[in-house]
Structures are given as structure tokens and as C-alpha cells.
Amino acid sequence: MTVPAEHGTPGGPISEGDPSGPVSEGKPAPEPATAAKSKAGRNLPAAIGVGVGLGVALILILVYVPLVWIGVVAVAMAVATWEVTKRLREAGISAPRIPLIAGGQAILWLGWPFGPVGVLSAFAGTVLVCMVWRLFDHGLKATPQNFLRDTAITVFVASWIPLLASFAVLMVLQDDGAGRVLCLMIGVVCSDVGGYAAGVLFGKHPMVPAISPKKSWEGFFGSLLFCVIGSLLTVTLILDENSMIGVLLGVVLVVTATLGDLIESQVKRELQIKDMGTLLPGHGGIMDRLDSLLPSAFVTWLVLTVLV
After folding, report:
1. What is d(CA 108, CA 163) in angstroms, rounded to the nearest whole number?
2. CA separation (Å) from 90 to 37, 53, 263, 285?
3. 85 touches 95 (CB < 8 A)
4. How far apart are CA 168 and CA 290, in angstroms?
5. Fewer Cβ close by (within 10 Å): the C or N end of the chain?
6. Distance CA 268, CA 19 (A)
7. Where along the sequence do coiled-coil regions lie (predicted)?
8. Other CB atoms within 10 A of residue 99 CB
9. 27 bridge partner residues
10. How far apart are CA 59 and CA 179, in angstroms?
11. What is the DSSP string of the chain?
């Protein structure tokens, strides 16, 4: 998960997160500091309040009405797709919004009755419809411009958002599905909190400065420590499974959560934006909270399906 951060002083700590403003020539532009922001650049009271509220709501849903989780994922992915396509259009990239959102809903909901076959079929159908939509979106007589670029990015968006999110739906439909989703959510939150704390307190060595200048190796190892402990506890206490599965899951989650964060960082860097949206105070948009969760949903589903 990304944690927006301000630039530190030379030689000072490197805090976890994305560049704090629009980028130009690969370098983030500094954002003026405000009293409401922490060292890491986010409005901590707002961020904590929103995070705790969402966390409590999701726990209650998973414990008492787990199938409602499918609807929660569907709404979140529709909003995230709208945010990303809006930002792409601002950059002059025409990604078909209507078929992406509608197709994304099909990808998610068809996983309920038909499982992976429904997901894959809906994804293929979405890609095909988006290709045809983009081919004729200016009429039958107009010559398409940037067709290959726009359709390639459209397929990327369909894969990045609804396809990866579908594994969170498939997971909740399994035995102990609510517990499996909790393993995913708690693991990613532990990774985020560990990386944020270690990065702010100890971060000095940039991890991948060309993509995310504020992400440090110290933060990565903080994520690793917190996530392994959190995953070990959730797998043993919630799923009642071997602790080594929890350790493995924790290690894999840190890698995928970090890579998911870096992928969105690079997307935002190329689009020259700080956040995908502004819906969640202290966090940015919905997509800014999903960057590490989406690939993590797939690997959690895979690890737990194979080993549990």
C-alpha cells in the first residue's frame, strides 16, 4: 500500500510511499508542508480514522454476512476503474470506461456461480468488447487513432483491477472463506504498518529511487517482520493451520504488496499525478488503497488453495 510522503532532508530518513506531487523528468515535485501532515506526508488523524472505520466494517461483514463481501469488492472495483480511466483520459489515453466497468462487474459476479471458469470467460469477453468498442468509438467512418496503445492499456486495466480482485471473491466462496480473506487483509495491513513505521523511523537506504524515492530497504524489512508475524498468527489462530504456511504467506505477501505498490507508483509517475482520486481523506482514492491488495489477493488465494 502506498503511503504518500514528503521529501526528507539530505541524509535524513526515507519514509515509505509515493512521490508527494506531480513528477517531471522522473523527479517528484515537492509539496508544501502543512501542520496537519506527519513526516510521511499524510493527514494521520484522517487516515487513521478512515482506516479503522473501514477495517471494522469489513471485519463485521466477513464475520456475519460474508457473501456481502462480493458486493463490497464489486463496488470498490467499479470506483477504482472509474478513477483510473478518468486519470488516463486526462493524460490523453482513451480507455473505454463503460465496457471496462460493466465487464469488471461480470468478472467479479460470475465467479460466484461459476468459479474460475466464470472469471476467465468474463475477462476474455471484456477484453473483446473493449477492443471492438475502441475500434468504433468515433464512428464507422473515422480512422482510429492510437488504437494499439489504448487497447493495450485497457487490457492492462482489466487485468490490474477486476481480474486480480476476482481472487478475493473466489477466496470468500471457499471453506473458511471469511477467515482466508481476513488472512489477506490482516497480512497486507501488517505489511503497510510495518513498512510505514520502519521507513519513517529508520529509512536511509532507497530501495528503488527511480520509481518510488521514499521507499527504503529499512521499510521493506519492517514490512517483512510485521507481515510474517501477522500472517503466522492469522493462519494458526483463524484457519487452525500449520504455522509454516503462515510464515510462507507472510513472506510472499510482502513481496507482492511491495511490487503492487511500485506498479501503481510507476503508473502515477507516468501520468504525473500524486493520487488516483480523493474519495478517502488521508489516503487518496480507492485505487490508492488497493495497489498492494490486488496482487496480494491472487497470491493469498493461490497459497491457501494449494496448501490448506
Report:
1. 8
2. 28, 31, 19, 16
3. yes
4. 12
5. C
6. 9
7. none
8. 22
9. 24
10. 10
11. -----PPPPTTS---SS--SS-EETTEEPP----TTB-TTSSBHHHHHHHHHHHHHHHHHHHHH-TTHHHHHHHHHHHHHHHHHHHHHHHTT----HHHHHHHHHHHHHTHHHHHHHHHHHHHHHHHHHHHHHHHSTT-SSSPPSSHHHHHHHHHHHHIIIIIHHHHHHHHHTSTTHHHHHHHHHHHHHHHHHHHHHHHHHH--SEEETTTEEEEEHHHHHHHHHHHHHHHHHHHHHTS---HHHHHHHHHHHHHHHHHHHHHHHHHHHHHT-S-S--SBTTTBSHHHHHTTHHHHHHHHHHHHHHH-
Question: Beta 206-208 vs 212-216: how paired, if at all?
Answer: antiparallel
Residue with cell 487518496: 284
Phi, psi torsion values for 203, nearest 5 degrees: -65, 120
